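[Discussion] Sanity-checking designs against the backbone

I'm trying to build intuition for which residues belong where. Below is a structure token string of 442 positions. I'd appreciate it if someone posts a full sequence so I can compare it with mine line by line.
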């Protein structure tokens, strides 16, 4: 009986397959293929301006001379440095950046034997408080975002690097630094954290709860977004939106900003497509600022301190790498950003009115059927384009790693038909990891 039922099931299954094949006429098969491709579709509304804060920010790097021609176009808004070198602070400020001073960088970590200070909590609170007081006085009267400790995650992988105490000991470390900074700098001092190495929801909330219970402020809330694979870059936005909602429960903390003060993980540090994805989802989530993280280079030097501006400039020739071009084009469009939408969260799409450009990348794992992006350009008249046609020039920013990219190459030029103030842009050959810039002109 069981064998008969099995044969009957197989027969019905085969009939269903034949019926499905018969129903999928050539026309329907074509539409199904189009639907797969159409998942890489989006739109730009040039009549809908948005005003996101810039995510152009960097770490350290100013210890070495860097060409102003490569620094100025990036319009850095944030710079995160260690205390003690007033020249670096001054240079960052001259570039227009808000400066975050990381107190713990000057005090020391497990990896450098605490610079001889010893862990703050081991009968050593006096040394920590004296150090904070001296550092605060050195910057008195200067605008500073005080970042108390870098990556105090209570995790085994971190014990030999930035923190080998407990969570409670970190909270006490923050509390004591906070008290000294308030004493020395007054109510206007901007103090924040916890600058965790990972988005750990429970740890962030525990920190906020501790500060609430102990009458401490967190003038900026911070953590790092570094470790997720490309497919998880969109989660950066989700993290930000969740924590933004939680802020309403902590009015006494006076949180004014959320800063992702290290972003872009090691494996993505040179990848233009991924970097553009991080920038987009930082904006989408409502971050108030971000700093590009720095990692080891192939020659075993550190991109924080080898004259590469966190890896985006070649250390010998001082010429741009592919990653630099992403930050350059991103910064160029920040003041005139317009609304974009995408049918696929892995299709990254940014646009601006001045310059008239689109920035595009695909940050997921894609199949061959997903290599074309179809983007509807709306309200072109607001760009001053009232002609019947529109020229779209697409430039490719390949993932060239540590190699120099003197300038992105022209990939294609299209003449688009404008109808009712709109046009359809189709870009074929999009590859993961790469980024693309489309320049529009009459």
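Best answer:
Here's mine. Compare freely.
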């Amino acid at each position: 009986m069981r064998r008969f039922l099995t044969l009957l099931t197989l027969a019905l299954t085969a009939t269903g397959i034949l019926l499905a094949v018969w129903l999928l006429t050539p026309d329907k098969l074509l539409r199904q293929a189009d639907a797969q491709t159409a998942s890489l579709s989006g739109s730009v509304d040039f009549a809908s301006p948005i005003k996101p804060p810039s995510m152009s920010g960097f770490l350290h790097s100013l210890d070495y001379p860097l060409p102003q021609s490569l620094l100025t176009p990036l319009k850095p808004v944030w710079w995160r440095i260690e205390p003690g070198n007033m020249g670096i602070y001054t240079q960052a400020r001259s570039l227009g950046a808000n400066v975050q001073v990381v107190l713990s960088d000057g005090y020391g970590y497990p990896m450098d034997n605490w610079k001889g200070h010893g862990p703050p909590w081991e009968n050593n609170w006096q040394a920590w408080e004296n150090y904070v007081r001296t550092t605060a006085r050195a910057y008195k009267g200067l605008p500073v975002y005080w970042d108390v400790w870098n990556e105090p995650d209570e995790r085994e992988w971190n014990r030999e690097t930035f923190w080998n105490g407990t969570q409670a000991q970190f909270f006490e470390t923050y509390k004591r630094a906070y008290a000294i900074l308030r004493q020395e700098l007054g109510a206007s001092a901007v103090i924040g954290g916890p600058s965790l190495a990972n988005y750990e929801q429970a740890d962030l909330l525990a920190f906020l709860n501790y500060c609430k219970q102990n009458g401490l402020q967190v003038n900026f809330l911070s953590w790092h977004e570094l470790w997720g694979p490309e497919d998880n870059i969109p989660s950066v936005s989700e993290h930000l939106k969740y924590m933004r909602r939680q802020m309403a429960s902590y009015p006494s903390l006076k949180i004014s900003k959320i800063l992702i003060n290290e972003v872009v993980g090691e494996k993505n540090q040179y990848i233009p497509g991924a970097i553009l994805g991080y920038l987009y989802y930082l904006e989408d989530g409502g971050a108030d600022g971000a700093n590009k993280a720095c990692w080891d280079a192939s020659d075993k030097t550190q991109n924080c301190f080898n004259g590469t501006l966190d890896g985006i400039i070649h250390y010998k020739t001082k010429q741009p790498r592919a990653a630099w071009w992403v930050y350059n084009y991103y910064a160029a469009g920040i003041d005139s950003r317009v609304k974009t939408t995408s049918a696929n969260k892995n299709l990254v799409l940014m646009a601006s009115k001045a310059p008239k450009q689109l920035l595009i990348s695909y940050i997921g794992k894609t199949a061959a059927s997903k290599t074309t992006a179809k983007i509807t350009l709306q309200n072109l008249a607001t760009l001053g384009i009232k002609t019947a046609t529109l020229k779209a020039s697409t430039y490719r920013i390949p993932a060239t790693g540590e190699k120099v990219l003197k300038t992105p190459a022209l990939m294609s030029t299209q003449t688009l038909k404008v109808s009712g103030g709109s046009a359809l842009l189709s870009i074929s050959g999009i590859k993961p990891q790469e980024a693309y810039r489309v320049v529009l002109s009459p």
